[in-house]
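Sample entry copied in:
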Amino acid sequence: MDNQLIGDPQPADQPEDLIRLLAAKDLEIAAMQKKLEKYEAIFQGLSDGVLLIDETLSECNQEACQIWKCEKDDIIGFFPSDFAPLFQPDGENSYEIAQKKVSEALRGNVQKFEWKDIRRDGIMIDTQVILNRIEVDGKDYVLATFKDITDLKIKENEKQALLHMMEKIIEDRTRTLQEYNESLNEEIARRKRTERNLEHAYMELEHIFDTSGDGILVLDSDRNIVRANLAFAELVEQPVEGILGKKCFDIFPCRHKCTDHCIIQEIVVGSSKTDFEKEFVSISGERKSCLVKAAALRGEGGEVLGIVKNYKDLTSYKRWVDRLQESEEFHRITLESIWDAIFLTTDDGRIVFVSCNVTGIFGYDSDEILGFDTIFDLVGNRFYSNHELAEVREIRNLEVEVTDKGGQQRTLIANVKRAALRSGTTLIAFRDITERKNAEKRAKIEYEQLVQAGKMVSLGILVSGVAHEINNPNNSIILNVPLLSRMWYDARVILDQYMDEHGDFMLGSLRYSYARERVPQLFSGIMTSSRRIKHIVQDLKNYARQGSTVMNEVIDINGVLRAAVLLLDNQLQKATNRLEIGYGFGMPHFRGNFQKIEQVIINILQNACEAVDDKAKAIRVRTGFDPAPGLTWLEVEDQGLGISDEDLPYVTDPFYTTKRACGGTGLGLSISSRIMQEHGGELTIHSRRGEGTRVRLTFPARQEGDAA
């Protein structure tokens, strides 16, 4: 009873051992409760978010809520992918990745990875996640611990950006140093590669120093020479032993020496490097030039420990530059001295260079030529073919017709050649051959005239022989026809008496009554024709005969016209049924060459005959005199085809003809025009296509008192 009063009330019917057992259990439960509270405090106090994953999120700590900015109820029952974007940065679906990671963790494979989450406030964060399998009451769960590493990632990105910027600065600095001093870059690069083996690097540096093609000096802070390589000794023509220990200005005299104006002093004061060009006279008396580059050797505190100077010998380079300038001047003078215009173009014809003497050929100065887009704009699109030039590499003797700035037509000959120059690929040379072409044309005209003269000589010889052969039988006819005529008149008396007695009768194939009247006419016709044959032969001989070269014959224009018409009588009769010739009265004479003027009139009459395509169309020839200007004139007008406006200005040019297909040479009117100029006269042509042509010859008439 006492025990019952003192202790907890116990059922009267419970055994003593059960009471003790329950007490023990209570103590165990209390201990477990305290342990649970401790674990709960630990669980909630963890700095990482903790999640318990069954099929969904079944438990989380306060830090998980803090990371995702939500309440516990907003987490329980959801899946981790519900707190992530639809796709992760690598492009994979967040739900599929989460399922895969959880499955791997349930198999016992610890999963550690970075993950993109979206907080409930919509902000995306970076997290680091670890998945482990745990067993609770015989069932497997996935315990996920995660932490927000967004700030860490930002710092890492900033660190990477800073590192990248530093690397860029280092790269730029390294590139600058490489451009500044190529020889020292090799030494610096070797030093970097030999940091693990200082002794080996030192040996390599020694080798570079001794074998460098540039002279190298090492000075201490007081500008005393402590090292010098062989190249420097050869540059200054002194032994290395005689250089060491001296001041730099003892080897290279310097007017500034140790003053504040010394270039080396700039490095000592604050500059890291400097360069300058220096000329000096060597011991042998040779003037040399070198490029000096100097850089400071500084200690850890920035103090100047020494100076490295690099001497590059520019003497040969300077001589080469001088020779190059001399060569350039020589080529410039050469280009100015030649007559050819030289062009340099690109593949597409764009002009990149033109010689200064281009004005003499094209009329444009160099700046105006460069204003053309391409060479083809200057000389024409059909100048040359790029495809052909690419195959043969050079095209020679191309003739080009161009119009210069003043509008004058010029003939050029061009050579086009591929060139391996930096600024252009095609070299073109133009030469003006206009005068040569004109000379060739004049020579051809003179040659044709010589040929014509030869033909005329041959014609004269031929005509003389033919005239002799024709004159012999013709003279016989002229002599015998009068005799036969007299015999006929004597015999007609007897024949008349016979007809009176016997009537009309046949004489040959004619009745005597008809023959009595007709035969005298036949004798007269034969005599007239024979005399005409004699005149024609004589005119042919006169026309073909080489006339006098003097221009002092007294010319009657009507007489020359009659001789020309007589020679062309047959051609004129075939050409037209309406030949009208009007001879002027009281025509004054003029001085000249009968044969040459006859040749002009024949040429013009022949052209008129060839122009008339219908015999019903007329050819009119007239002569006359204009007293006011004192000019004798002859005019030939036809109703032929006429001359087009395009051809009319050129019909008197040598070899220009509209009848080349039918044998025309283009010399008739050209020679006629020159003959008229020799006589002080003028040949004028008026024509319209389809309406005919009128040619007028004018000669200065002979004045009273002129010598005959």
User: Anything to note?
Assistant: The first strand starts at residue 49 and ends at 53. The mean pLDDT is 79. The chain is about 45% helix and 25% strand.
